[in-house]
Amino acid sequence: MIEHNPLLQNIVRFALEEDLGSGDLTTDAIIDSEKKGKAFLISQESIVLAGLFIFKKVFLELNRKIEFETYYDEGEIIPAGKNICLIKGQLLSILKAERTALNLLQRMSGIASLTKKYVEKVEPFGVKILDTRKTAPGLRWIDKYAVRTGGGVNHRFGLFDGILIKDNHIAAGGSIRRAVDLARKGNPNNLKIEVEVETLAEAEEALQAGADILLLDNMTITQMKEVVRMINGRVMLEASGGITLDTIKDVAKTGVNTISIGALTHSAKAADLSLEISPDTSNAPG
């Protein structure tokens, strides 16, 4: 189960330690430890919900007796102004966990929401949207989870589970062919070899060298079409580099198989969510 991933627990504990330090001076001074309360998690805009189980884990890390009533499931689209869940229990713990829990959920839901926009743009063309390694340090696991929740597909998780020969590898290795040959010799798990290319000539060289996937880096639409024609389905083609919501349809129409978008994780706007302490006792969903 994804909720039990040990990396998740490490992320939650480190984030809380970073925020709380030696203690919450404001909350400890104002709120009696015996006081109980409740708070609603509210979406201020329409979002794809991603990371609610992590949001809950933050509160439970401080107090195992915190309770939740959940009104939406992971991956659902939440309309603006709706209550997502109700948190009940020791008010001291709720207030101490609030910011950390929101920060994680806002980031993840923002990534999922942006990913869904890209996925919807290319759906008619059968093209998959991929993420990259351009994630927040220490948060890659949750960033990539959020991409999947939004309908995207994870590229390699890190340097250890995929071979991608980029321009600097080619420069250091001497040529595309030599870099591919060396990568194949140092590939005990027989992983597919992907090569970044910027021109039609480089694409031809990579194909002849035996590359399994070509990453078309910062190519124009015309260049992409030429490569697609030349390759003619012999290997997978990934487009990348400066592709936006305004241009992605034109890229998808060229015939590439996948499109990788670094902005999914390095530039997604945090979802607008808030936690509001409720003065009454009603538990009705939004």
Please supply descriptive tags for the structure shown above.
286 residues; alpha/beta; Aldehyde Oxidoreductase, domain 3; six-stranded parallel β-sheet; 12 strands; 19% strand
Describe the structure.
The chain is an alpha/beta fold and 286 residues long. The chain is built from 11 helices and 12 strands. The strands form 3 sheets. Strands 6-11-10-9-8-7 form a 6-stranded parallel sheet. Strands 3-5-1-12 form a 4-stranded antiparallel sheet, covered by helices on one side. Strands 2-4 form a two-stranded antiparallel ribbon. Helix 9 links the parallel strand 9 (213-217) and strand 10 (236-240). Helix 1 (6-20) packs across helix 3 (52-62). The longest helix has 32 residues, at 91-122. Residues 281-286 have low confidence and may be disordered.
